[in-house]
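## Example pair
The file below holds two records. Each record gives the amino-acid sequence first, followed by its C-alpha cell line.
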Amino acid sequence: MTEVTGVTAAAPVTAVGSSATTRLLAESADRIDAPDVVLAMSRGGVRTVHTGGSAEAGPVAREQLHYELGSASKPFAGLLLARLVAQGRVRYEDRAADLLAPGLPVHPAVRRITLRHLLTHTSGLPGLPADFYPQAVPRWSTDPYGNYPADRVVRAFLRARPRHRPGTRWHYSNFAVSVLGHTLAAATGTPWEVLLHQQVLAPLGLEATLLRPGPDGTDATGHRRDGTPLPALDTGGFTAAGALRSSPLDLLTFLEAHAGGASGSPTDPTLAAALTEVTRPVLRRGWRHAHTHTLTWFQHPTPYGPVLFHAGATLGQQAFLGFRPGTGLAVVATATRRVHRADTFVATAYGLLTDTP
C-alpha cells in the first residue's frame, strides 16, 4: 500500500488522510529548500510518500522520476560484491591488482589491496586520483568526471602509491569503489552495467534504477544553489561510486529488502545471504572508535535500535537512503538542488530515520 501526498509551488500541502506519518513527512519537507523534494517512508511494507518543492510539478509524478544518487550508489555496489562472494565467484580477500592485471608489476601496497579494502574505504587510496584534478577543475561545476574514463581509472590504480598500508586507516574514496567496480567486471568477464542488473537490479525488481539517463522527461533535473538547471551528470570511469539514477519508489523496494519489508526474504539464498552480510558491522573508526560501518553502510545507534544509512550528492541533486535492520522501517529522500553549508536535507532525512518510533 502506498499513500502519496503532494504540493506544487502554487498550492499548500494537501494530505490524503491524516496519518501521523503523512503529517511528519509534510512538515519535514517544509524544511528543505529545493525545486523538487520527495520524502518516502516504508513501515512494515506500508508506504507513505510526500512530494513537493519550489518548482511546479511536471507531467511525470515526482516520485516516479529518476534521481541522481551520487554516493548513495555505493550500497548497490556493496550488495553486488556480497552476492558474488556468496556465489563463490570472488572472495573479499582477493587482491584487486591480481584480478585487473595479473602479473603486472605494481607498488607492494597496491598489491595488498583487496576487494574488502576497496569497498570499506580502507585501501589507502585517496578520494580521487591525483591526475584527476587538472582536467576536472576547468569543468568543476558542469562536468568534472566525463573526461576521465574507465581505462584511466584502472591505470591510475595500477600506478598508485597508497597513503597508508591497506587495512590500517579509513579514508572515504570514490576512487577505490570505482576500482572495485572495474575489478568485479574483470573478474566475472561481465560489464559492470550488465553485472549489476543481473545480480541486484533484476532480482529485486528495480526497473526504474538505471546507470544512465532514462527516456526524455523521466529524469529529475538538478539545479545549482541559485536555481539554474544542470544537465545530467556523466560520471566517466567512476560508475560504481556514483552513477545510479533511481525513483524513490524503487529505492524503497531496495531498502525494504534490507529492512524486512513487505517484499519478504528473497528466495535466492545467495541474495538473502548478501542482504544479511551487508548489515553486519565490520569496522570502527574515529575518536574512541565511535563510528561503526558495515561493508557499505554507515551505522549509528538510536533508542529504537541501530540505523544504517548512506547519503549522496551530485552537482545538482541529493539523495538519502536509510533503514533499521529487521524492523521494516526505511526512509528515502531526494532533492534537486546542490548541497550547501546550511543545507537541511541530510539532517531532515536522518531525523526521520532515527527519531521515528
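Second record, same layout:
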Amino acid sequence: MFGNYLIGLREGLEASLVVCILVAYLVKTGNQRRLPPVWAGVGIAVALSLAFGALLQFGSSTLTFQAKEALGGGLSVLSVALVTWMVFWMRRTARHLKSELQDKLDAALAIGTGALVVTSFFAVGREGLETSLFIWTAVQATGDGVRPLVGALLGLATSVLLGWLFYKGALKINLAKFFRWTGAMLVVVAAGVLAYGIHDLQEADLLPGLHSLAFDISAVIPADSWYGTLLKGVLNFQPDPTVLQTAVWAVYVVPVMFLFLAPERPGQAAPSAPASTEPAPR
C-alpha cells in the first residue's frame, strides 16, 4: 500500500504542480479567459487514464492463465522502465520545471485554444497513464485489488492538497530534494515490481528457472503474516524468490540507485534555475 501511496503522491504532485504553474501563469498574464481549455485538457487526461486502467483490468480478465501472466509480466517490466525514466527525468528538470512550462504555454497561447488543450493534456496525461499502469501491476503482484487502489487514492488526495497549498502560496516545496528522495524510494519499489514481473514471465513459461529458488524464508516471514503482507505491500517482497528474480533485482537496483544518487555534473543543472519552485503571484 505504501508503494502505491508513494507513486500516487509523486505522480499526482507532479501533475498538480504542472496545473498550478499553468493556471498561475495565465492569471498573472491576464489570460483568465483561456483557463477553460486548460481545464478541458486536464479533464481529458484524467478520463483517458481511468479508461486505460479499466481496459487493463477488465481486458485481462478474459485471458488464459498463461496469457494473463505474460501480460502482467510484460507490463510490469514496462511500468518499471517508465518509472525509472520518470525519476531520472524529474531529477534533471525539477529545477527549471516552471520556466519550461511557461515557455510551452507562451507558444500555445500564440497558436490558439486547441494548443492549450493539447499542452495541458500532455502535461497531465503522461503521469496519469504511468500511474494507472503502475497501480495495475501492483494489484496483479499483491493479488489485492483494494489496498493498492486505496494507497494510490490517498497519495493522489495528498498531492492535490499540497498542490492547492502551493498555489495559494502557503507552501514552498524544494522540488529538487523532494523528487530526489521520493525517487530513491521509488527505485526500491520498482525493483520489487520488476522481480515480480520476472516471476510472472516464468509462470508463463517465457523465462526459465521457475523452480530454482535463491532462498526460502517462508518459515521466518510467512507470506500471510501481517509483517509478510506489509513487506509485500511496500516492497513487493517475496520470501521464496527464484534465482533469476534475485539476480534481476540486484542488477537493477544497485546501478540505478548509484546513478540516481550520484552528484550531478555541473553541466546537468541549469545555472540560473532556483532550487525551489513557486507559483507566479495571482
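Notes on the second record: The first helix runs from residue 2 to 28. The two ends are 37 Å apart (CA to CA).
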